[in-house]
Automatic annotation (TrEMBL), chain A:
Family: Belongs to the binding-protein-dependent transport system permease family.
GO cellular component terms attached to this protein's record: plasma membrane
Presence of keyword Transport: yes
Protein's name according to its UniProt entry: Peptide ABC transporter permease
CDD domains noted in UniProt: TM_PBP2
Membrane-spanning segments: 53-73, 117-145, 152-172, 178-197, 228-248, 285-304
Gene source species: Bifidobacterium canis
SUPFAM superfamilies with a match to the protein in the record: MetI-like
Highest taxon of the lineage: Bacteria
UniProt xrefs under PROSITE patterns: ABC_TM1
Domain ABC transmembrane type-1: 113-304
TrEMBL record, chain B:
SMART domains assigned: AAA
Entries under PANTHER family matching the protein: ABC TRANSPORTER, ATP-BINDING PROTEIN, TRANSPORT ATP-BINDING PROTEIN
Family to which the UniProt record says this protein belongs: Belongs to the ABC transporter superfamily.
Keyword field contains Nucleotide-binding: yes
ABC transporter domain segment(s): 26-375, 416-661
Residues annotated as transmembrane: none
UniProt protein name: Phosphonate C-P lyase system protein PhnK
GO molecular function, one term: ATP hydrolysis activity
InterPro entries: AAA+_ATPase, ABC_transp_ATP-bind, ABC_transporter-like_ATP-bd, ABC_transporter-like_CS, Oligopep_ABC_C, P-loop_NTPase
GO biological process: peptide transport; transmembrane transport
NCBIfam families attached to this UniProt entry: PRK11308.1 (NF008453)
UniProtKB/TrEMBL annotation, chain C:
Record domain ABC transmembrane type-1: where: 95-298
Keyword Phosphoprotein belongs to the record: no
Keyword Cell membrane: yes
Taxonomic superkingdom: Bacteria
Species assigned in the record: Bifidobacterium canis
The organism's taxonomic lineage, starting at the top: Bacteria, Bacillati, Actinomycetota, Actinomycetes, Bifidobacteriales
Compartment(s) of residence: Cell membrane
Protein name as it appears in the record: ABC transporter permease
Membrane topology: Multi-pass membrane protein
């Protein structure tokens, strides 16, 4: 055929680029100049550049300080109330004024942080521990264990969290510890983490490096702890961070309904509930705890978003 | 054109003249494409690239991944991904500059002037729409007249010059509504013409197969009738009466049929997930050609498919585009394939065109060092070269990377003995078991390489996993040094794992992304409790040296390395325990040609130095030729053929083996070593 | 399709049984005596308590109690309230109100969520994308009762656009603001979901192939990007309908709407365990049925599921 088309068509003549224009590189050489980075270092680099992460990080640190050392921010006792001050406006030492009972709104907002943060953090810790354990067992062993555990998860998921929590909490209306709220939230919260953990374990279980390790002589249990779990951590961290905010909201909601924390505990939800009756006359009493609650939740959700972006496997080249 | 060897040479000349007369269909000059990083820095993906495509011509762009071959092609369609944008040069389509086109303007040329057959058949069809609907979209978008065939300018010109001028109506398609009546009329016409009995049945069956609604035109129906003995006037009368145009549904099915999809009308109503990879690719070809574009851009259209399917589809595509007069810009990483299919080759490297010219010339006489390297490394070409040498009775060992170790083949002791191996799987919601491996037996002698070749679903990887004792066989056994590996428990199993090591296919999956390279290579030493911290560090350094990687790699993580580098890490890990046997499951399949060549060299060197035994699983017969002593060919779980590499390549006994050999791209090429035969 | 449906319904049965059992167990088997709770602060009259125990089968073994409850529930007999009213009457009075509220909230979140989500997803990086994102983030962070109060104060008390409370027999307009409040969080989630789905679908290979066919941008967007992004959004919406009915409690409380949530809350305050368990069981059933409908819808939208 080339005999016939002996003369090439215009623009299709033989062309060879000068060698120095595209110098030949050795096949598949390693770029030794770039710094070595692990997945975590990579994620951290992405996070550091994300303004959402920086803002939410600063806010969360501030809230944590407030929760740990409320005395640094106010000298007032949040439980000291004087009916003479009922609904009084702001004055020296009482920037946010007083509520219906004559308690200092500012100090109650400050002390409320401790409650919200403790409930959020404790619930998240329990939920992540239980959820990861159950999810990992279901995903790793599979078979009937998985079938049974998955059905249990389905059953819990079918009960709307708020309704379930209300049903349980009404039985313990007399108890005055924050643990009842934490345990009830955890009781209905662990399932979503379990589902995520199961999915993560299942997908990393099927990755080839596990087969490779087995062929090298590793046991299934060693694989679980050395390979599968470390590779499932990222999605669990993401759901943990994001749901922390939602547990704070749930606590506030339950307290708002009057069946969460007892009124003796200073909490934003409880204060908002109490301020309900004066909404028309003095909305600011309701405004301050609401704002504190919203900022806290926003910070955790933003943090969750940022962490998710940084740990998203799709954004990584691996 | 390669397939048209037998017809009169004048056609070639005529086409050539016409191409000269028309000028280039697509002309790319000094094209430059940049991508922008997150930091706003430009990355030069393509620089100073020039190539042109003439009407009816196949032009191939060859290059490794990241060479800018796809980017150049996508720039022509205005479909650059992400932040890609053209920063210089010109792209002319039929003489009109299109590089500055807006997306709206591109819509007017896409589909109708330029079609695309994309690479990955799995992700390029929308899973929620029926196949037929997705074909229809193409002609709806371009306001195609679905009841008439549209000819390319080239074939129009050829037809004008050659045959009688056909009236518009002759290109009318047959519709499914009229088909039964047409068949009946045709039957009567045959009887009237005196065609009877056996011959009648045969002709009718022929009509039944050929007359596909939405694809067969009026003049071809008439032509078929005339050839069957019906008188001209009658034939044209019938054709005019019953061939009166097709609906969109007919046309979609007709296009799928032309692309080689069986039962097209039924298939058109199915969804992509009900299709195999090959069928999806055919559907994509139908879409690319739906509006009869002058130019078809085929971006690695078959590289995700099995070799035999690949060959069938490419043969079909070539016939189809030749008959339609469509030009094809064919993008591939395989030099052999490019040279086999295209008249003109463009070699790209690091975003630049390094060499271009007529296929055979480039192949036989590569000038640029990169092209030379590519020609030397391409397995399809080198296996071709070996065969040519041996056919001429010359010593091929000089150009072979692997020397067949005949002594070990004959006298060496058997290290792996596979006896009547069978594996059945339970399919979900099916009663009967699926036999993935069916009674397979072979022996591997120490110090040799046995390759298992087969296409997807042949059960070759299942065999590998059973030899590694990652899967338990349903029946039969695997003996390692004469001992049944199923009998190994705890300590003896650990001992077995010590000696038999794997290298897996996926260089992205077989290393834990959370482990540094040091930890990955050290892992087997840790598991087998060998040495202390210091000696392990020393060993890891040795191993990195063995696979020719710098020590600094140790602190790195898998995501920072290329596929080939990861595969070398995987080999280093497998070598850590000084094994006797390494099972390579498609270990080089995912790699670029040059990298693949490098890894094969490494494996060969290791074998010579350390007397390793390999079980090499691959779908690529060309690679087998370079590395194996013994070959087992598998199909549908069964062993088809077993022999030494020479026997299998020179004297294949089974048709399937012949098909596989035939499917090696570049198989029909006359290569550089035959230069003396040329005038 | 039929087989798939049947399988889903069969899978639903253990979930329904398990869920009702769990709710029942939480109310009647946990430490804490529901009968005592009925008396509140008053001294417990043992005779009356025993009578109540007998009436609610609380003197029988737990599993028998549950089975009797289940048997009665199947005939829609949930027993009586303390006042002697059949529970089913109370429920059927409150249920339509909540259903109306939930459906309005559903329409609100579906329409605005999809529209804003699509705008944000298709025009990623534009200023209005950023605005939509920030607003949705705020809506997610602010608890419903705060949104409720803010709406009530500004739109009701200050601006007099909407009625401040809805009352016992609310009309469409009375429920408009409560519905928006109720649907606001879900709307924000839908915006985020739709946005991320669209922006990931837009870079799919089949979208490029569609463009290569010569389809216009509008056609590609509707037929390939939006059509495929709809699947998870519709799934979310369906599941949310059940959740909205359960979550209406807060909104009904704030706006004084006499629906299911209000009823539940009042009965919790009064210690009407029987009513609570009935309502929660019913809502859980609604939730499970919604999930089943979602599955069917999912199968209709995604052929891969249909034929699996």
């Amino acid at each position: 055929m080339s005999d016939i088309t002996s003369k090439p068509l215009p623009g299709q003549e033989r062309f060879v680029a000068p060698v120095d224009k595209t110098p030949l590189q050795s096949v598949d050489n390693v770029d030794e100049s770039a710094p070595a980075t692990s997945m975590w270092a990579d994620a951290w680099r992405t996070l550091r550049k994300n303004p959402m992460f920086i803002i939410s990080g600063i806010v969360i640190i501030f809230i944590l300080i407030v929760a740990l050392f409320p005395g640094l921010f106010t000298k007032q006792n949040p439980n000291y109330c004087n009916l003479d001050n009922s609904l009084a406006g702001s004055q020296a030492g009482h920037p946010f004024g007083f509520d219906l009972q004559g308690c200092d709104v500012y100090s109650r907002v400050i002390y409320g942080a401790r409650t919200s943060i403790s409930v959020g953090v404790l619930t998240t810790l329990i939920v992540v521990a239980v959820g990861t354990l159950v999810g990992a067992i279901a995903g790793f062993f599979g078979g009937w264990i998985d079938a049974v555990l998955s059905r249990i998860v389905d059953i819990f998921l079918a009960i709307p969290m708020l309704l379930g929590a209300i049903v349980v909490l009404q039985m313990f209306r007399t108890s005055s510890s924050i643990w009842k709220v934490v345990l009830v939230l955890a009781l209905f919260g662990w399932v979503s983490t379990a589902r995520i953990a199961r999915g993560a374990v299942l997908s990393s279980k099927n990755l080839e490096f596990n087969t490779a390790s087995t062929a090298l002589g590793s046991t299934p249990m060693r694989n679980l702890f050395r390979h599968i779990l470390p590779n499932s951590v990222a999605p669990i961290i993401v759901i943990g961070t994001t749901s922390l905010g939602s547990y704070i909201v749930s606590e506030a909601t339950l307290s708002f309904l009057g069946i969460g924390l007892p009124s003796s505990v200073v909490s934003w939800g409880g204060d908002i509930s109490k301020a309900q009756s004066v909404l028309r006359t003095d909305p600011m009493v309701l405004f301050y705890p609401s704002l504190a609650l919203a900022i806290t939740v926003l910070a955790f959700i933003m943090m969750g978003d940022a962490v998710k972006d940084a740990l998203d496997p799709k954004s990584r080249t691996a | 054109m390669t397939n048209e060897k037998q017809p009169e040479e004048t056609l070639e000349e005529k086409i050539n003249d016409m191409q000269r007369e028309f000028g280039p269909l697509l002309e790319v000059k000094d094209l430059a494409v940049d991508f922008t990083t997150d930091e706003g820095k430009p990355i030069h993906a393509v620089r100073d690239s020039s190539f042109s495509v003439y009407p009816g011509q196949w032009v191939a762009i060859v290059g490794e991944s990241g060479s800018g071959k796809s980017t150049s092609a996508m720039a022509c369609l205005g479909l650059l991904p992400g932040t890609g944008h053209i920063v210089g040069g010109s792209i002319k389509l039929e003489g009109k500059e299109i590089s500055h086109y807006t997306q709206k303007q591109f819509v007017s040329v896409r589909g109708s002037k330029m079609g695309l057959v994309p690479q990955d058949p799995m992700s390029n069809l929308n899973p929620v729409w029926r196949i037929g609907t997705q074909v229809k979209e193409a002609f709806v978008a371009n306001h195609m007249d679905v009841s008439h065939e549209k000819r390319s300018n080239l074939s129009k010109a050829l037809a004008d010059a050659d045959i009688q001028i056909k009236s518009e109506g002759d290109e009318t398609f047959l519709g499914s509504k009229e088909l039964p009546e047409l068949m009946e009329a045709a039957g009567q016409a045959l009887i009237k013409a005196g065609v009877e009995g056996d011959k009648y049945e045969k002709r009718m069956e022929y009509f039944h197969n050929e007359w596909v609604p939405g694809s067969e035109t009026r003049w071809r129906v008439a032509d078929d009738l005339i050839k069957s003995g019906v008188k001209d006037d009658d034939a044209w009368y019938i054709a005019k009466k019953y061939v009166v145009g097709s609906t969109t549904t007919d046309r979609a099915a007709g296009l799928l049929d032309e692309a080689g999809l069986p039962d097209a009308a039924v298939r058109a109503r199915q969804y992509p997930h009900e299709f195999s990879g090959g069928m999806r690719q055919r559907a994509l070809i139908a879409m690319g050609l739906a509006c009869r574009p002058e130019l078809l851009i085929a971006d690695e259209p078959t590289s995700a498919l099995d070799v035999t399917v690949q060959k069938r589809i490419l043969d079909h595509l070539q016939d189809l585009t030749n008959s339609l007069g469509t030009a094809v810009l064919f993008i591939t990483h395989d030099l052999g394939l490019a040279a086999e299919r295209a008249q003109h080759i463009v070699v790209m490297y690091k975003g630049q065109v390094v060499e271009s010219g007529p296929s055979l010339e480039v192949l036989q006489n590569p000038q640029h060092p990169y092209t030379k390297r590519l020609v030397a490394a391409a397995p399809s070409l080198s296996s071709q070269r070996i065969i040519s040498y041996e056919e001429k009775g010359e010593d091929a060992s000089a150009i072979m990377e692997h020397k067949v170790n005949e002594e070990s083949l004959e006298k060496g002791d058997v290290i792996i003995d596979v006896e009547h191996l069978t594996k059945e799987f339970k399919l979900p919601r099916r009663r009967e078991m699926f036999k993935a491996v069916d009674d397979v037996s072979f022996k591997i002698r120490r110090g040799t390489t046995l390759a298992i070749v087969g296409e997807s679903g042949s059960g070759k990887s299942t065999v590998a996993n059973m030899v590694l004792r990652l899967l338990d066989p349903t029946a039969g056994k695997v003996l390692y040094n004469g001992k049944d590996i199923a009998s190994f428990k705890k300590d003896s199993l650990l001992e077995f794992r010590h000696h038999v090591q794997p290298v897996f296919q996926n260089p992205y999956g077989s290393l834990d992304p959370m482990y540094s390279i040091y930890r990955s290579i050290e892992e087997p030493l840790r598991i087998h409790k060998i040495g202390d911290k210091e000696s392990r560090l020393k060993r890891v350094k040795e191993l990195l040296d063995l696979v020719e990687l710098p020590e600094s790699v140790m602190q790195r993580y898998p995501n920072e390395l290329s596929g080939g580098q990861r595969q070398r890490i995987a080999i280093a890990r497998a070598m850590a325990l000084n094994p006797d046997v390494i099972v390579c499951d498609e270990a080089v399949s995912a790699l670029d040609v040059l990298v693949q060549d490098q890894i094969l060299h490494l494996l060969n060197d290791l074998q010579t130095q350390q007397g390793l035994t390999y079980l090499f699983i691959t779908h690529d017969l060309a690679v087998v030729r370079q590395i194996a002593d013994d070959v087992v060919v598998m199909q549908h779980g069964k062993l088809v053929e077993h022999g030494t590499t020479d026997e299998v390549f020179m004297h294949p006994k089974k048709q399937y083996t012949k098909d596989l050999l035939d499917a090696i791209p570049g198989g029909k090429l006359e290569l550089g070593l035959n230069l003396d035969h040329k005038a | 399709m039929g087989k798939y449906l049947l399988r889903r319904i069969l899978q639903m049965i253990p979930v329904v049984l398990g869920t009702t059992l769990l709710v029942y167990a939480l109310v009647f088997a946990l430490p804490g005596d529901p009968v005592k709770a009925m008396f509140g602060d008053k001294p417990v009259n043992e005779a009356v308590a025993a009578q109540i125990r007998a009436e609610y089968n609380l003197d029988k073994p737990f599993i028998v109690q549950y089975l009797l409850f289940l048997k009665n529930a199947l005939s829609l007999d949930f027993g009586n309230t303390f006042a002697g009213q059949p529970v089913i009457d109370e429920i059927s009075r409150a249920f339509p109100v909540t259903l109306k509220l939930a459906l309005m909230a559903f329409c609100f979140e579906a329409i605005f969520g999809c529209v804003f989500g699509a705008i944000a997803g298709l025009k990623k990086g534009k200023w209005y994308d950023t605005v939509i994102l920030i607003v949705s983030l705020l809506l997610i962070s602010v608890p419903t009762f705060v949104t409720g109060f803010v709406g009530q104060y500004f739109l009701g008390v200050k601006a007099h656009i909407f009625p401040v409370t809805a009352g016992s027999d609310p009309g469409f307009f009375d429920l408009l603001m409560p519905a928006m409040v109720l649907g606001s969080v879900s709307m924000a989630y839908i915006i985020r979901l739709a946005r991320s789905e669209i922006s990931s679908n837009i870079s799919q290979d089949y979208v490029r192939t569609a463009r290569a066919k010569g389809m216009s941008n509008t056609a590609v967007t509707f037929r390939h990007v939006l059509r495929n992004s709809m699947i998870p959004v519709v799934t979310y919406l369906g599941q949310d309908l059940g959740a909205l009915m359960g979550g209406a409690m807060i909104t009904e409380q704030i706006f004084n709407i006499h629906g299911i949530g209000y009823l539940t809350y009042q009965s919790i305050l009064k210690g009407e365990a029987n009513l609570v368990v009935s309502v929660v069981t019913l809502l859980t059933l609604v939730f499970v049925i919604c999930n089943l409908l979602v599955d069917m819808l999912y199968a209709a939208l995604d052929p891969r599921i249909r034929y699996a």
